[in-house]
Structures are given as C-alpha cells and as structure tokens.
Amino acid sequence: MSLKKKVLFIFFLLVFSAAAVLFGSEGLVRLYKRRFAPRKIALARENPHGTGSYRLLPNLDQVTRVEGRRVHLRTNSRGMPWREVSLEKPPGVRRIAFVGDSFTFGLWADSYEKNFVGVFDSLISAHKMEALDFGVPGYGLDDMALQIKEDVLPSRPDIIVLVFYDGNDFSDTWLGTAKFKIVRGRLANNKENLRGKVPEEYRAKKHDPAERPRGLIPRAGAFLKAHCVICRALLPRKATAPTGQFRVKRVFTSRGFWSQVPYPTIAE
C-alpha cells in the first residue's frame, strides 16, 4: 500500500471513529435524558359540564420520575389533586379553596401533601380549617372562573385563593378555554385557536430565509445544534443579554414571553 493510500486510510479511520464516538455518546445522553425526563401521563378530560375548558381525570393514581425523583400523581373522585373530601362542608369547619395552574396543582412535588397547598393545610388543620386544592395545569383566568362557578362554589368555601403566575398564565388567558385539545388524556395545542388568536408578528418563523445560515460550515453547525444534544453543549452560542437584563423573546408561545422587560406590545 502506497503512502498516500495509508494516509487516506488513517484519515477515514479517524473520521469514522470520531463519528462512532459522537453518535454513541449522543445515544447514551438521549437515553439518560429520557430516563430522567418526566414521563407524559394522561391527566385531562373534557369538561363534563360541556361548557368548554377541561378538567383533571378523577381517581388518577400514577407514578413518574422527574430528575431521578419519584413523583406520585393522585386525584380524588372529583378530579381534584387532593385527598377524598365530601361535597358538603363539615360542620364547624371553615374551607379555603385554592384555584390555579400547575403551581397550585403541585408539579413536581413528591405528593400533594408536599405541595404548598398541602403544607398550608397541615398548618391550619388544628384550627378547624380545611384547605382544598383545585389546581389544574395549563389553566388561565377564564378556565379558573368557569371552574369556580361549576366546581368550587358547590363545595361552599369560605375563602377562595386564586393563584396567578406572572408568566404563561397571561398567554393561557389570552388563548381562552379552547387553547388545548385532549388527545388520549394529554393536552395538545389547538393550532386553529393559536392561528386565530396570535398576531402574525408573534408567531414562530421556522423558515425565515433572512435567518438561514450561509455557507457549508455554518449550515452544518446549525444542523448539529438542532439535532445533536452534545453539539448544543459544545458549539458556541449566540450572544445573550448582559447580566441583570432581560431579552424579550418574540415568539408568543415561548416560556417567559409575557414576564420579560420591556414588555412586548401585546403583553402591555
């Protein structure tokens, strides 16, 4: 074998070895992330009152793992993330009903006893008071208003605490009670509702020609960033806002879109 062929052989062997290590490592990283990522669980059903929005499935008893921790998700026969309680208020007891989104639901507390409503309940139980948790992930204010009317008030609470998150609760309210479709018990974005509610300038632009990388190497880098977990960690990132400042994300459905400063016009 000539020297030129030997050099080419060694070069391709190194390239093949590097690719094998990269793809093997990528597979292990994805397997690890899948192992410790929250498993999608069927939680929701259509509102049994038939007035829109959705409710949690009753008698749910599922276990998932989040970052290696065991999380027990339970609901009672009324679809509340809570212990079994009667509709009738016990005599001599004052009820405090908590209404809100996933924070009130308690994601990802080990159990409902350890979310903030459960801790609050343990502190007031000796004073003839009782807390009730009506939290539902993904709720906006209109969902909560409907739930208060149909499910909370029949429990005859003395106090209703509405928990609001200064972030995606704004967008969940803006999109209304038709923002999700229930697909096998899971929440899926209602794309028709999104198109009707979100102004054009705040929609995601996946194929904007002006933002496409030019040249073979930048395109290869963009491809690897999009499809390779390891490459996203190793390749250089775009410059971010200076420490102490917020950079507004222009896409309506981005996390934190509503709670950043300066606020987008739609948020104001």
Quick structural gist:
This protein is an alpha/beta fold and 268 residues long.
Descriptive key words:
Rossmann fold, elongated, 8 helices, 268 residues, alpha/beta, 9 strands
Provide an overview of this structure:
There is one protein chain. The chain has three domains: 1-36; 44-189, Rossmann fold (3-Layer(aba) Sandwich); 211-268, no CATH class. The protein is built from eight helices and nine strands. The protein has helices at residues 3-36, 102-105, 116-124, 141-152, 168-175, 191-197, 216-227, 229-234; strands at 44-46, 54-56, 61-66, 69-74, 94-99, 129-133, 159-162, 180-183, 186-189. Strands 6-5-7 form a three-stranded parallel β-sheet, sandwiched between helices. A two-stranded antiparallel sheet has the order 1-2. With 268 residues, it is of the alpha/beta class.
CATH class category name of the largest domain: Alpha Beta
Structural class: alpha/beta
Total DSSP helices: 8
Strand order of the largest sheet: 6-5-7
Uncertain parts: none
Question: What is the CATH third-level topology name of the largest domain?
Answer: Rossmann fold
Helix content: 25-40%
Secondary structure topology:
Elements: H1 3-36, E1 44-46, E2 54-56, E3 61-66, E4 69-74, E5 94-99, H2 102-105, H3 116-124, E6 129-133, H4 141-152, E7 159-162, H5 168-175, E8 180-183, E9 186-189, H6 191-197, H7 216-227, H8 229-234
